[in-house]
Each structure stands twice: as structure tokens, then as C-alpha cells.
Amino acid sequence: MVHLRIVKQLVMKEVTLRIKFREYETTAQLPEKDNELILKARNAARNAYAPYSGFRVGASVLLENGIIITGNNQENAAYPSGICAERTALFYASAQYPNIPIIAIAISTINHTSTPSEIAKPCGACRQVMAEYEDLAGQPLRIILDSSDRILILNGIDSLLPLRFKKEDVK
Ligand code: THU
Q1: Angle at 29 (CA atoms; ends 48, 43), nearest 5 degrees
Q2: Ligand 1: which of 73, 91, 119 to mutate, most ligand atoms within 8 Å of CB?
Q3: In angstroms, rounded to a whole number, what is the distance separating the alpha carbons of residues 86 and 73?
Q4: What's the pTM value of the predicted model, to 2 decimals?
Q5: Which residue, among 156, 150, 164, has the nearest Cα to 19 in the 3D structure?
Q6: 51-81: per-residue pLDDT in tens?
Q7: Complete edge-to-edge strand list for the sheet that includes strand 68-72
Q8: Radius of gyration of the chain from Cα atoms?
Q9: Are strands 142-145 and 102-110 parallel, antiparallel or unpaired?
Q10: What single string gives the DSSP state of each residue in 94-162?
Q11: Which end of the chain has less neighbouring CB within 10 Å, N or C?
Q12: Which of 133, 124, 139 lies closest to 167 in space, CA to CA?
């Protein structure tokens, strides 16, 4: 009797994901609306309540109806009770204008002299929140990451949060 042994080969494939953004050297290269969002995010950062970290962040959110909402980080003596600038702005926008799509966000950080500092890099929780509103809007969120010497623009959250958890995953 002949025994046939079938050897199943395990297949592994390596997948590379690419992220994409546009980089600008000055705000002069940007459309007027982006500049307005950046200026508002920088101004919002100046009003941040960040006595513990000293790291001041501002965000401005553009709604489809043209309204711009701003927010900044709000810290607290009980550290985890604070919240980032992005979520302050996004949650306020959604609370006040529940059915209006959020189409763009600009994020700035400023240093102690109130001038823009390093490129703004939203935390993981804020990326997840941006993703939710992008899905609700049904169009890619324009994400503007500001700094003193360059501005990055991303078309949609996928480049900041690939393989993300979505509301369909909850069902
Ligand atoms: N922070 C933001 O507001 N946005 C970010 O994208 C990163 C961090 C705040 C949270 C905290 O108040 C301070 O920056 C230091 O982490």
C-alpha cells in the first residue's frame, strides 16, 4: 500500500502599505482656506490650557457649511482627565453641528514664544476620532499638519491610520 503524504505549504506574503502626503515650504503655496485654518489653529494653540506639559496644541476644523470650529488641549491636575486639541475641536463641532460633515482639520503646535514649532503629529486616539468623522462625512478628510518650516497635507486618514478599526467592526 502506498501512502501519499500531501504537504501543504504555508504561504506567507509580505504586504507593504504606502502613505502619501504633500509637503509645502510656506503657507503662501496653499489655498486661502488652508491658510485660514492654519492661522486659526495657531491662534487656538496660544489659548491652550497646558500648565503641566507646557506643550500647546491648536486645531481648527472646517465643516461642509463653511463654519470653522477651533479647539486646544485642555489639561488637568488628574492627568488622564485632559484632552487633546483635535478632539476638543472635533467633539465640539459634532456636538453643535451633528449632521454637518467635517471636511478638513489643521493642527499646530507652538513653542514658548508662541511661534509654530515641530510638525504637529496627532496621537493615536485623535487619529481614531478623525477616522470616525471621515467615515460619517463619506469623503476623505483633508488633514493639515503645520510647523514653522513645512506643512504636510494628507488626503484622508488612511495615511495616518492604516488598517484601522471601523464602526463596521463593532457589528
Ligand atoms: N496633545 C494634543 O493636544 N494633540 C496631539 O496631537 C498630541 C498631544 C496634547 C495632550 C497634552 O495636553 C499635551 O499635548 C502633551 O501630550
Answers
A1: 15
A2: 73
A3: 8
A4: 0.92
A5: 156
A6: 999 999 999 999 999 999 999 999 999 999 9
A7: 22-24, 151-155, 142-145, 102-110, 56-63, 68-72
A8: 20
A9: parallel
A10: HHHSTTSPEEEEEEEEE-TTSSB-SPP---HHHHHHHHHHHHHHTSPPEEEE--SS-EEEEESGGGTSS
A11: N
A12: 133
Judge contact between 119 and 152, C-beta under 8 A. Answer: yes
**34, 45, 59, 113 from 26: Cα distances, Å:** 12, 19, 19, 20
One-letter amino acid of 53: S
How far apart CA 57 and CA 68 sit, in angstroms, is 17
Nearest CA to ligand 1 atom 5: 122
- Structure-block grid coordinates of residue 81: 482627565
Q: How far is it, in rounded angstroms, from Cα 57 to Cα 79?
A: 16
Q: Which residues form the pocket of ligand 1, taking CB atoms under 6 Å from any ligand atom? A: 50, 53, 55, 57, 73, 75, 82, 84-86, 122-123, 126
